[in-house]
Amino acid sequence: MAEPLLRVEKLVRRFGGIVATDNVSLDVASGELHAIIGPNGAGKTTLISQLTGHLEPHSGSVSLAGRDITYLPAYRRCALGLARSFQITSLLLDFTAADNVALAAQAHAGTSFRFFANARKERGLRDAAHAALDRVGLGHRADVVVSRLSHGERRELELAVALASKPKLLLLDEPMAGLGVTESQRMVKLLQELRKEVSIVLVEHDMPAVFALADRISVLVYGRVIASGDPAAIRANEDVKRAYLGDQHVVTHHG
Amino acid sequence: MKSLSASKAVTALMLVGLVLLPLYSSLSGNIFILTLFTRIIILALAAASLNLIMGFGGMMSFGHAAYLGIGGYAVGMLAQEGVGSGFVQFPVALAASAIYALVIGALSLRTRGVYFIMITLAFAQMAYYVASGLARYGGDDGLTIYKRSDFSGLIDLSNRTQFYYLCLACLFGVIFLIWRIVNSRFGLVVQGLRSNEQRMQAIGFPAKRYQLVCFVISGTMCGLAGALLANNTDFVSPAVMYWTRSGDLMVMVILGGMGTLFGPVMGAVVFLLLEEFLSQITEYWALIMGPLLLLIVLFGRGGIMGVLGRAGRG
Questions:
Q1: What is the third-level CATH fold of B2-313?
Q2: CB-CB: which of B181, B196, B204 is closest to A115?
Q3: pLDDT tens per residue, range A10-55
Q4: Nearest CA of chain A to the CA of B194: how many Å?
């Protein structure tokens, strides 16, 4: 098998006595949509934070396309082709949608130590921004200030921002969080389109969405990967059933 | 959109007023007003430079007056040592300010929020005490500058009108630069960092180096104000760096409108005119000034520019 795009090896992260990430290993192949699911408190956010560079692991390693990125800061990972969306939308609220996306494009188009020319008139950046906005269906809202966008639109904008950096791997932290039924369906459709272009790691509570989208699913319980495989295998897995249906509450629909 | 908004109208009026002021002064024979406004313009320049990091960059520096002192002492100390040329004094003033900003910024930008405010304040107070200890250059008492910067006949700083226009040109030049900067790639990154640092890091911008460069640009601009101020008063003393002066600059920026191009100029004009006017009425002018500023800040969100902007829309 070829080198995986993302390789996580024996990652460990503790908080005091709690092992939030317990020897997690997983591979994401190029072109794959890999979903990470697990009950509340399973350590999904902790794991994602170590992938994005917001949290350092105590041991283990993360590599992107063969390059060790375990201790690289977030901005360097982004430069290497790792883009993310935030579970709680994190955007530049006082900037327009187009500005938000154009800045992401700018980060990957030469130096930003340019002090004189008007960046909003750079055709390349604006075109890239509008292309990404069109991609997520926000083209008509390009010049609206983010604080005036609806929650659903902001979730889509998160995606557009991530896409604008032309990533190799997209880390999506609960992109459906807080979306209504129709909005969720739109997001699923959108992700179905995007997965053709970019590899995706998807952390999500919305089980129908996960099973509809994922090539492979890893199930995280108490910081450990208890199962990893294609949707059919995961559906049939006894450990997974027990984790979800046994001593814990069913977390199929969240939000 | 094309109609002239209230804030634009008032700004234009103010700028025209500033340009025509020497004319009024010479026609009416009122020299005092020219001296007063030279000072206002210089401090407006300092406030505008502070606004670059505070209003656009979200970096609340409480030590900006240090650059007024550094620029001023560069001029004063060189003059004392017999170097009277402005072509030497001004570049040295700017360079010294830039180096100070680079060092202070590199250390201060490791912190955020209140800590950033406190550490910039602490460094400025350190500069204040260092200046107080310079026995050779007057120490506490300050340093008299017997001859203004000499630009070998190009411009005469001892001529009130010429000096006024030099200061005004510097102010306009700096505002022009700030205007270009805030709309440039660099400026958008800095403003993005003010808005949401986590997001900017996630899309690939290392926060600190952009903020540091912005901090240095701002400090250098304020160093220019310091060099002009020393020429204006023919004197420089540690008092120009005292923390209350940094506070005054912050008040000017907030009063005029943070993150607007001409807000700090407006703020400086209003603040210093009020100070002048009230101190003529009563010795306890600060008692009136304080609550007045409080009211403006409390009820006029966005400062004068904000109020005018809303008036224009409503």
A1: ABC transporter involved in vitamin B12 uptake, BtuC (1.10.3470)
A2: B181
A3: 999 999 888 999 999 999 999 999 999 988 888 898 999 999 988 9
A4: 9
